[in-house]
Each structure stands twice: as C-alpha cells, then as structure tokens.
C-alpha cells in the first residue's frame, strides 16, 4: 500500500448495506394500516345500512315484476312511498295529489303528463279500456320511480 490516497491499490470492494427488513413494520406503516382499516370499517357499516334501508325498495320492485293484475301498481307505489317518506306525508294523498307527489319525489313528469297518469283509473276500470302500450309504459315508469326516488333522510 502506498501513502498516496489516489493510488488505485487503495481501492476496496463496495460494501452494500443490508436490506431493510419487512418486519417489524415502521410506526408510520402501522398508522397508515390503522387508517385504512378504520376507513374500510366505516365504508362497510355505511354499505350495510344503505342495503338494509333499501329493502323496501327491492321488495317493491320484486312485487311489481311479479304483478299479474295491473290494478296492483298504485298500491305498491303507495306502500313504498309510505315507507320512504312516512305515513304522515303520504297516507292522505290520492289521485292527482299522489301522482304529483310521485313526480316531485322522482324528479319526473311521467305520472302527471305521461301514460302513468292513467294508474288511478285502473282501480275502477277494466284492463281493456287502457291501451296496452300505455299500460306497459306506466308500469315501467312505476318501476323507474321505485329505483330512483330519494327517500327522506333520518
């Protein structure tokens, strides 16, 4: 070895440090994991509550799909509306007032201006007095309202 620090004889192999171990985790990683776990828990609780709160909606859509007598459309809508908005607000509504309510809560005009306006007439009329295409459209509008209406919060 020479005394010259620039001499190539003084070169040594590069010594790499050991790789950082995966375990135990650093404190910051524990904090991130705890935050992710808490967010997952909150999201799961929210999804469960939403699923449970919409059980009436799924049941009404199922009933509407299985309906054989079209006179049952309005009672299904009425039960769903009472569940979603409360008896105090919906139970006294009938006829045009109920159709206005459906339009207002569904963000549509299908119940007051479309073929669905004929739904109250089905209670007392026979099926043959209402055109089949209008009947199909009215049932489709009822199904759409069941899927998209926004229930009151609380």
TrEMBL record:
It comes from the Bacteria. InterPro entries: DUF4381. This is Uncharacterized protein DUF4381. The chain crosses the membrane at residues 28-48. Keywords: Membrane, Transmembrane, Transmembrane helix.
């Amino acid at each position: 070895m020479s005394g010259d620090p620039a001499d190539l004889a003084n070169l040594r192999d590069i010594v790499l440090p050991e790789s950082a171990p995966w375990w135990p985790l650093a404190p910051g990683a524990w904090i991130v994991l705890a935050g992710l776990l808490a967010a997952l828990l909150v999201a799961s609780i929210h999804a469960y509550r939403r699923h449970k709160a919409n059980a009436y909606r799924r049941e009404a859509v199922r009933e509407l799909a299985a309906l054989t007598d079209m006179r049952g459309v309005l009672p299904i809508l009425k039960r769903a509306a009472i569940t979603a908005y409360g008896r105090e607000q919906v139970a006294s509504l009938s006829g045009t007032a109920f159709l206005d309510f459906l339009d207002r809560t569904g963000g549509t005009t299908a119940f007051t201006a479309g073929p669905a306006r004929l739904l109250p007439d089905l209670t007392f009329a026979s099926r043959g007095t209402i055109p089949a295409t209008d009947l199909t459209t009215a049932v489709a509008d009822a199904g759409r309202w069941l899927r998209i209406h926004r229930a009151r919060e609380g």
